């Protein structure tokens, strides 16, 4: 009989391609005693959650690098190095950030092994058919395994299919067509529906029925959408593949969409969830690590309050030691919104000033204050050290902020997309618009006239789909759902090329094709002044909004206390000019017509990360990278 380790680090060192799977411990439990006991089984489930916080798993490698560049999110640095290669679709399997034995690929499989042990053990010893408490444990493990596999599929494309505990015959496995994995995950999630309830998740760091059904829909959209796929039957042979739809009859929209929409409608009608009325309060809660279930947030990556590098990586930038980031090192601002995104929002959309900010924090001798960041450097205002009031950031390598994995807004927008599609059975335009309107009602703070204006002329499948694409951008910027969306819509490169063209329109004082804005209305010079909001220093900037173009380099706006924006030499400087988005240090033009500001290689042919070389080597010939790596 197998013995299993019951500790938080049960499989922390597991590398499925190379490790010795026989691990000795002073504390071992018989499978029968563990998986017949709901408390001990729950401890084993905790070990699955624990994988996300491992040093080079989601904490330090996956989350800091997955999901950008896209048309709405980009890497801010202009340095040309291996980090830039990751986000610019030019990564090699030897990339030093991800080619580590304990990197995301191996850590995700470590979590899958922990889930497999739990699922196998509960099925064999837990009597889930007659014991609801054990059925609930089984459901939780099935959902967690689906989450871990979803993360692998998003990043690596084709991977091995491991749905049973590793044994001597399965240590080394080749990839399979991702359709095999999609079908198993969808089957698992359907099974979990019968084990979980909407009350199962007592906090947002535990999975429950709403996540199971939401993930079912998310996977249905991925599986039935476009992706770079090896030719049929060639996964794991080095085949470069093409961007295409699945040819599996079970993964067509006509099959998956009705089930996915049914799942989403159940969450909407019975899940007890709602949109947080105040968009800013939603994100203040995230920064304060509020784990209260039953509101908008369905599930977060379950870091402890002293683990994770989310704000460390993505918060509004703090330059050096500040009141909110007590360290001499810069924190936050690794990536941010592509600058035009701010102008894609309507002026009355309350999401705009929460999601996209153009300031950074610094102490220049007058205390910690916000200063203009430069037109190329916009930050995700959803993530702010100054909002971490309950658990202030200590200045160390971890901050404890728990990234949002799924929230109710995504349920609504997925439902809108599926209901709007004529490929998914009976198209329901009225329901799609109803879901869109709920999103927009919050965005416009209940201003019905603004909602009506946004939806004016939005009818018919194509127009509604374009509105859904837009609202997914404006609602989720900085949450890194966009890359997966663009891939399944088959517009990854096309969308980044359009974003680069929009930036060229900005610096040319022209009209942008995405936003429809005439950028000649932006001020040539920017002025700013400081104030206070909720006891925190604030900044007001003039010249950054359309129509604020009457100030000059010597004539400030009306009122007192204005300071002109200056360059790094202290000279009054134009805020946006014909050289905007061109690095003065490297000469890189992030708005380049050839798209190289966003990518170095064709992103449609490099949609996935390569499996790390160290894993390939240790796989004893069982693994081979596809997609031209």
UniProtKB/TrEMBL annotation:
Residue stretches making up the RagB/SusD domain: 369-616
Signal peptide location: 1-17
PROSITE patterns in alphabetical order: PROKAR_LIPOPROTEIN (PS51257)
Cellular component terms per the entry's GO annotation: cell outer membrane
Pfam families registered for this protein in UniProt: SusD_RagB (PF07980)
UniProtKB keywords: Cell outer membrane, Membrane, Signal
Superkingdom of origin: Bacteria
Protein's UniProt keywords contain Signal: yes
The keyword Membrane appears for this protein: yes
Cellular compartment(s): Cell outer membrane
Family, as annotated: Belongs to the SusD family.
Protein name: RagB/SusD family nutrient uptake outer membrane protein
Native source organism of the sequence: Candidatus Cryptobacteroides faecavium
